[in-house]
Amino acid sequence: MINLVKKSRAKIVLVISGFAMLTSILVIIGWLFDIKSVLNVVAGGATMKFNTALCFFFSALGIALSFGKKATLKYASIILGFLVLIIGSFSLAEYLFHFQSLLDNFFVTDLLSSAYPGRMSAGTAFCFAMLGLSLIAIHTEQLVVLKTVQHVLTLVVIIAFVSLITFILEIPTVNKVFFINTMALHTSLLFMLLAISLSLKNIHLGFTALIFEDYDGSRLIRKLIPFIVSLSIGLTYILLTVVNNQTINYDFGLVISTVAFVLISIIYISIIGINLNKKDIRWRELQKSLRDTNQELEYYKQALDKSSIVAFTDAKGIITDVNQKFCDISKYDKTEIIGKTHKLINSDFHDRAFFKNLWETIKKGEVWMGDVKNKAKDGSYYWVHTSIVPFKNDTGEIYRYLAIRQDVTKRKEAEEMLASQYVKKLEQKNAELEQFAYIASHDLQEPLRSVTNFVNILVEDYHDKFDEDGAKYLRIISDATERMRNLIKFLLDYSRLGRERKLSLVDCSKILQEAIADLNESINIAEADIEIGNLPTLYVFETEMRQLFQNLISNAIKFQRKDCKPQIKISAQKLNDTWMFSVQDNGIGIAPTHFNRIFQIFQRLHTSREYQGYGIGLPNCKKIVELHGGEIWVESEVDKGSTFNFTIPKLEL
Ligand code: ADP
Fold first, then answer.
1. Could you tell me the pTM of the whole model?
2. 539: which residues sit within 8 A by CB, 6+ positions away?
3. What is the pLDDT of residues 582-608, one digit of tens each?
């Protein structure tokens, strides 16, 4: 109900104003055409004067306009307010200074009233002056004025209400107080309605606020006022009726009426009291459970404070609060931390992508967790396992982040130490292996050379001494030694790879062109078509890089399907801080089960008769890519071609 009033105030006001205007027009017509019944409503009661009806018309129109949004409507309402104020206060002045002016019978001549014909009652005049004043003042923005207007309107309602009671209780006119002695019934009613309507404009101020608020006090007022008013009027009405009828005498009636008033009030107030008590009990229960929850939260907070490094930031990441542990580990004072961002303790250990991912996660409202290396005020580093929890408000907006951290420096240092020891051991083992392969292949060359030499002597000087079988075995030995020499040479080359490496800034297009030039002959024979995209300039090991391209292109030419010519595409694309190169062909392709095997040394998928080779090309490529800190892999389908991809990190020297 209350909400309905709040929402549809403008409509309510329009209906009331319309009613008031209609009533006033009826009264004006009554005066003009002498229809008495509309002038006083109650036979013998006071009449609504012509000026009163006119003022009501102005007031009702002014009130309706005051709810409009346009400035012109506002000014029109102020002008109407002025008219009402002038007529009201002039009539009042007539009473106060005992004079009769033209105003009273200016429009029509009142032949009905004996005292002050044509003049509105003093109460009516006063109410109009107040209503007119309120209509003018209600358009201000000043709170004090607006509040005063609400009080003035309440006063008008009270005066009209008192007058209304006198009618209800049928107090003879002579016994009425001077001030309201001749206010007509519909006059009082209209005053009440119009004053209430205007006060709805500022529903949150003054007495209207007290009635319409959503608090217990306002609810109580809404229940008690109608009850007290109707009960007291009702009882007094009954009392006067029975006393006038001489059914009982006045004293007895008064006693009965008082007792009834007290009893009914006690019952009604008790019912309200019981309901209020129930509400209070529920409220206290809620308060207690809230206190308990708060207490529990307090324990959690204490536990968190003792065990973790805690920081609160606002939605932009500006630190709003930290606990003592945060200050202890970062070695900053609280005053140095508040108002700053976490950049204060940034160690520059993590790259931009790390923090980008962190922010993306928490901005989505999800919890981010991870290990972060921070820098304390004294320059020392510490590791924290961090959980960042976003806090959301009712509308789902993030308004705060809570970062809970655990000091994991010791664990991280241990991990780092283990890792470095492991890496050292691995490097040592690798070096030993490379050394072994180098020495083995180097030293094996010598006896092999002797075998080759003597086989050559046998072939050249003793070939006529061998029969057919002997000559065949000699050829097999010669081929095998040749093959072994090649294998040992490749092994030596492989172990030498990157031994004397030197990084230099190289235009990859240039070394690719050189690699293609070296392969010129086989490219021409195979009629290969090579398409080259834009390649970057990078810090690389130039010779090794050239060899890498050479190996991949020569494989792309070599492993070609019989029915078509090689089409090779070489391209590169940037992925964050690395470059990904691709060498794509339309050859025989590779089954996924062999994707790893082909990068192992001396592993081949074909016999030398099908496709010549030793199974050293791709292991070489892998080693070269890994020397640069990159990765190599293949994407392929049998008969659909292969794409060899490798990454080379963008090094800054
Ligand atoms: P090789 O070329 O000497 O055989 P690699 O190490 O270069 O040795 O290659 C190993 C194996 O990988 C090859 O025997 C071949 O089966 C397969 N391979 C390499 N490149 C391609 C390619 N472009 N298309 C199809 N298969 C390939």
1. 0.50
2. 503, 504, 505, 506, 651, 652, 653
3. 999 999 999 999 999 999 988 888 887
User: Would you list the DSSP string of 93-120?
Assistant: HHHHTT---GGGGSSS---S-SSSTTPP
Q: How far, in Å, is the centroid of ligand 1 from the Cα of 436?
A: 26
Ligand 1 binding pocket, CB closer than 6 Å: 555-556, 559, 585, 587-590, 598, 604-606, 613-619, 642
Ligand 1: centre distance to CA 627 (Å): 21
Structure tokens at 215: 């608090």
Name the amino acid, one letter, at 311.
Answer: A
Measured between alpha carbons, how far is 511 from 547 in angstroms, rounded to an integer?
A: 9
DSSP 121: P
Give residues with Cβ within 8 angstroms of 480, minimum separation 6: none
Nearest CA to ligand 1 atom 8: 615
Backbone dihedral angles phi then psi of residue 356, each to the nearest 5 degrees: -60, -45
CA–CA dist 382, 372 (Å, integer):
8
* Residue 48 Cα to chain centre, angstroms: 62
3-state secondary structure at position 5 = helix
- Our mutation pick for probing the ligand 1 site, out of 552, 557, 559, 568, counting the most ligand atoms within 8 A of Cβ, is 559
CA of 559 to the centre of ligand 1 (A): 7
Asked whether residue 428 carries a pLDDT value surpassing 90, the answer given is no
CB 51 within 8 A of CB 118: yes
Q: What is the largest CA-CA distance in the chain?
A: 169
Task: Name residue, tokens 């010549």.
Answer: 612
Report d(CA 408, CA 373) in Å as an integer: 10
Query: Whose CA is closest to 538, among 574, 498, 513, 494?
Result: 574
Of the candidates 512, 513, 547, the residue with the CA atom closest to the CA atom of residue 617: 547
Residues 6+ positions from 618 with CB-CB distance below 8 Å: 551, 555, 598, 599
Q: With helix as H, strand as E and coil as C, how does 31-88 read? A: HHHCCCHHHHCCCCCCCCCHHHHHHHHHHHHHHHHHCCCCHHHHHHHHHHHHHHHHHH
Mean predicted lDDT score pLDDT of the chain: 88
CA of 340 from ligand 1 middle (Å) equals 58
What pLDDT digit, counting tens, does each position of 228-259 carry? 989 988 898 888 888 888 778 888 888 888 99
How far, in Å, CA of 203 to CA of 208, rounded?
A: 5
Q: Best-predicted range by mean pLDDT among 27-41, 89-103, 160-174, 537-551?
A: 537-551
Question: What's the CA gap between 433 and 345, in Å, rounded?
Answer: 44
Matching residue, tokens 């040479």: 489
Cα Rg for the chain, rounded, in angstroms? 52
Task: Decide the pairing of beta strands 398-407 and 309-314.
Answer: antiparallel
Nearest to 505 by CA among 534, 543, 540: 540
Structure tokens at 34: 């002498």
3-state secondary structure of 572: strand
Contact (CB, 8 A) for 120 and 179: no
In angstroms, what is the span from residue 434 Cα to ligand 1's centroid? 23
Task: Using the structure block, give the residue that is written with the tokens 């309120």.
Answer: 134
**Which atom of ligand 1 approaches the CA of 556 most closely?**
23
